[in-house]
Specification:
99 residues, little secondary structure
Length: 99
């Protein structure tokens, strides 16, 4: 969830093993690891979290997203389904079954 909107949902295995949304990827990259040699890179988000009282138009995450497209700034992305239980709101996957 980002600024009050669910950006990705799925089973634990789906979200942890096949992460889709850029915000979910950033969250999971922040999990501390015991072995620093795992090679997992941390995703450092730039900018500040927008105000939840006055969130940005379009995808709320677009001001901090590395994959931002022009349409992200104006229209909230439709739901893209990857399975019966795994889905996210992100234009990176608009060619999936979007509703």
């Amino acid at each position: 969830m980002y600024l009050g909107r669910i950006v990705e949902r799925g089973t634990t295995a789906e979200v942890f093993d096949n992460t889709k949304h850029p915000y979910t990827k950033a969250l999971l990259s922040a999990i501390p690891t015991i072995d620093p040699k795992t090679g997992a890179e941390k995703i450092h988000l730039k900018g500040d979290v927008p105000s939840p009282i006055n969130p940005p138009q379009g995808c709320h995450f677009h001001p901090r997203c590395h994959h931002k497209m022009p349409k992200c700034e104006s229209i909230y992305p439709p739901l893209s389904r990857f399975s019966d239980t795994h889905s996210c709101h992100c234009y990176l996957y608009s060619d999936y079954n979007s509703i």
